[in-house]
Specification:
single chain, 352 residues, alpha/beta, Rossmann fold, 2 domains, 5-stranded parallel β-sheet, 11 strands
């Protein structure tokens, strides 16, 4: 198969591409690198030009690259509101009409924030950041956003959720397909025994402050720093290129993913693959969505006390971290391995 992967969030498509290639398929990613994360791609839709020149180039690049995005067996869109679609005065419908017309099959992921997530999923999910906290973030709540999202659904053969939260948003969509877990190239993520030295190092990645519930992490860290100054090193860092971010993560023992979450995002999957102890979304609904009975991920509720309690419990398990880290790695291999996930995509695309 020849596959076009359009758009990027935290290297999900890049990892999928590598899995597809390992299975003997041809795959390319056309994306903007997911902004400051600078995820590599084959067709760059990003502009480094300043001011008005960058705005012009960001609108021209997708259109000028259309010839490179023709003739694929499958084209898959990451999200209806990837960067190019968000550009004002960009002919989004024309662009996607061309993608659909010039490729054999067109699919879309339910991933990241979109109008269906804002309008439908967030109303049904108990753990979701309140509206008053996320003012200033794109929320895609206008009728025109919802109309465009619906238009995209009608253009694709199927919508593939990447986790439980997106199943909920698209549960009334006739062409919603089964959930496929996030892929990770296990072979590129070195596993090291999770050894606790003088202090237990706890890390939370800084990105989308309110959506990730970072305010709860900060509140918890203030309490924990006062109570355990000699036992804990507490780190909040982020908004950096992906490789730099992963380098910070490697020196930690515990990674806190999201607090407003039923499932694990890409950040947590990287941490699991490294053999870190992960705190984040591990609700029963999420496990059903992944098709597993259990997970090494320690489930969090969106409040500081939940974080404090879990970290205090981990302090009592300092001598168990090598085993806990091993269980994290095994879970990543069994559930998120890039070749296994790539085969799930091939099977889904082939049957629809």
């Amino acid at each position: 198969m020849k596959i076009l992967l359009l758009g990027e969030y935290s290297s999900l498509h890049q990892n999928l591409k590598e899995g597809l290639q390992e299975l003997g398929h041809e795959a390319i990613v056309a994306a903007d690198g997911d902004g400051f994360k600078k995820v590599p791609c084959d067709i760059s839709l990003y502009s480094e030009l300043p001011s008005i020149f960058g705005k012009i180039e960001r609108r021209l690049k997708p259109l000028l690259s259309l010839d490179k995005m023709k003739g694929f067996d499958v084209a898959q869109l990451m999200n209806p509101f990837i960067t190019i679609t968000n550009l004002k005065y960009f002919p989004s419908r024309f662009f996607y009409q061309k993608i659909k017309y010039h490729n054999n099959k067109f699919f879309m992921l339910a991933a990241g924030n979109d109008a269906y997530f804002s309008h439908y999923a967030r109303q049904k999910l108990e753990y979701s950041p309140p509206d008053e906290l996320i003012k200033g973030y794109p929320n895609y709540k206008s009728q025109s956003d919802l109309d465009f999202n619906q238009w995209m659904i009608e253009k694709v053969r199927g919508v593939i959720p990447i986790m439980y939260e997106y199943e909920v948003g698209y549960d009334s969509v006739p062409n919603r397909l089964p959930t496929i877990p996030i892929p990770i190239n296990i072979e590129k993520i070195p596993y090291e025994e999770n050894k606790v030295r003088k202090k237990l190092v706890v890390f939370h990645g800084l990105n989308r402050y309110e959506f990730k519930g970072t305010r709860h992490v900060e509140e918890a860290f203030e309490v924990l720093a006062r109570k355990y100054p000699n036992d804990l090193e507490l780190v909040i860092d982020g908004k950096m290129p992906l490789n730099d971010y992963l380098a910070v993560m490697r020196r930690t023992n515990v990674v806190i993913d999201q607090t407003y979450s039923y499932s694990c995002g890409m950040n947590a999957i990287y941490a699991l693959a490294m053999g870190k102890v992960v705190l984040g979304g591990a609700e029963p609904e999420s496990l059903i969505s992944l098709g597993v009975d259990s997970t090494p991920v320690i489930n969090l509720k969106p409040n500081a006390q939940s974080i404090i309690e879990k970290i205090e419990q981990l302090l009592e398990k300092r001598n168990q971290f090598e085993q806990l880290g091993y269980e994290s790695r095994k879970f990543a291999e069994e559930v998120h391995d890039y070749k296994k996930i790539a085969q799930q995509y091939i099977d889904t695309w082939s049957s629809h």
